[in-house]
Amino acid sequence: MKDYYQTLGVSRFASAADIRTAYRKLVRELHPDKNPDPQAHELIREVNEAYEVLSNDTKRQAYDNRFNYPELEIEINEPVVVHRDPAYRRRAKPATSARPAVDGQLELKKRIVAKTHFFFFAGTLLSVFLSFDYFLEPVASTETIVGFRSENFRRSYQDYLLTSSGGELKIAYEDRISLRQGQQIVIYSSRLLTIQRKAVVPAEDPIILTNLATLYGNFLFVPVMLTISSVLGLVAARFSGVEFRLNLLIANAFLLIFTLVLIIIH
Is residue 198 a contact partner of residue 206, using CB atoms and an 8 Å limit? Predict the structure, then answer.
């Protein structure tokens, strides 16, 4: 495919004025009166051809699309001209069947989905590992409650339980009023990532702490949603449109990053 910009010696972002100036300069240089070269006639024909396309906004846009996406075989069509005289009623010639214009945004979305599809694979692998870690027999550690502390979050308070190992657990206010310093507490953590799953204060009526802000506690829904979006993304690669896959990809990437953050800060 001919590069009309190279023929005129201008960049692909040249303005209409720059294209006109370059064209006039080349016409003067290749004119038979100044250039006796036998090839000048053929060169000036190519210059005229390039200028005819690049000086017309509609033709230039169609040419750019065809140049950027040669596999789509876009045709350059003349725009329909409306006569200025209202009395002029000649019916315009029916337009020939042309291929639809390239949807640049759609092509961009396809490229993004193709290059970032690995997020679905990464999410699936991480989901399998987390499932394995979650369903393994947890490790239990017995500690002593050594104190409590509270933090003020705007109009609410958050209570924490301090353990003899130096750790702390976020607890609900209902649990706080039921606990006291010196009590024993059993903390169950996952075997591989040591993520807290639950905490129990043994007694005749055991107290189960219900506000563990961990990946296997209050945020258990995150790996569940990650699993669903990852598997669905792999399946949807063949059966759904690019819009759906892109939206699913964004959600999957967010869930994957959020899951990794929760693993790191546990």
Answer: no
